[in-house]
Amino acid sequence: MTLPIYDLADLRTVLKRDDMLRVVRDACMQHAQHNVISAKSGELLFQEPPGDCHIRLGYLRGGETFVVKLAMGFYENPSKGLDTNNGLMLVFSSHTGKIIAILNDEGWLTSWRTAAAGALAAKAGAPPQVTALGILGTGHQAEHQAHWAAHLLGTDRVFIWGRDPAKATRLAEKLGHHGLSVHALATVEEVFEHCNVVITCTPSTQAIVPVSVVKPGTHIVALGADSQGKQELDPHILAMAQVIMTDDHRQCAERGELGHALRAGLVTNTADISLGHVLAGSLPGRINADDVTVADLTGLAAQDIAIATLAVGLVRAVAPGDADNVTPS
């Protein structure tokens, strides 16, 4: 029997945004309820050139499959005409250990599940009236977050900042062709002046958001600090936050923004709540309109399991002759 290998074209044909939002939301809730068995994430860091490789694996209790995922990011690749991200997922039977499929997604599934998680976290802590969405970063994830989070927040106003102003301008122009009103700004401070929901998605190794720019009522979703040594927020921001949501407490305490605040003695080990509980409606992501709130995301094996399982099921359901008739989202 030939081993099924599904490539990026197969996956993009069948996966839709609403389906991915649904399964990622459920994955976060299942993780919060301790229904996911997963090992500690593996991590390789590279300096010359800068990059990282993450290995995640796990399964849902009672589920039919378990998943091993490799995701890579090499940040100088665009200058070489290459994509920043790459990766694949291996799907096995949780009953026999037999491999079911290889998802040669080139890192796309990780990008989309991260986009879904960021958008869900943005909605979970957003103030009642969203003035605009701010994006710090100019890479592929910044583009995804602008689309996905703006969709869930119900806004078309987006402001972009990047360390390279030319990249920020190009991204703003690109997003503007997709129905969004987008402006590139020169400073982080300007983004926070215009926006009360801000998503950070850079590979920064030092804080790029000072506490002084954060106004009452602001919600921040921090995505970039997913490896040792990365940081985007001044840890004092977490100290001033009325609500801190984490996708996984242990991971965020080790490598996320929460970890920087913990090591600085600015918050306690019980300062955060689970994003999964907020998405389930059992805990509030915001108490008052003028609260400062933070969501710290480091990525979950539960999300990879959910996306991989969804992908295999959908690709298998499409007859070879009908694949061209499925419209991607």
Automatic annotation (TrEMBL):
GO CC annotations, alphabetized: cytoplasm
InterPro entries listed in its UniProt record: NAD(P)-bd_dom_sf (IPR036291), ODC_Mu_crystall (IPR003462), ODC_N (IPR023401)
Segments traversing the membrane: none
Name of one Pfam family that matches: OCD_Mu_crystall
Stored Gene3D superfamilies: NAD(P)-binding Rossmann-like Domain, ornithine cyclodeaminase, domain 1
Name used for this protein in its record: Ornithine cyclodeaminase
Organism: Pseudomonas fluorescens (strain SBW25)
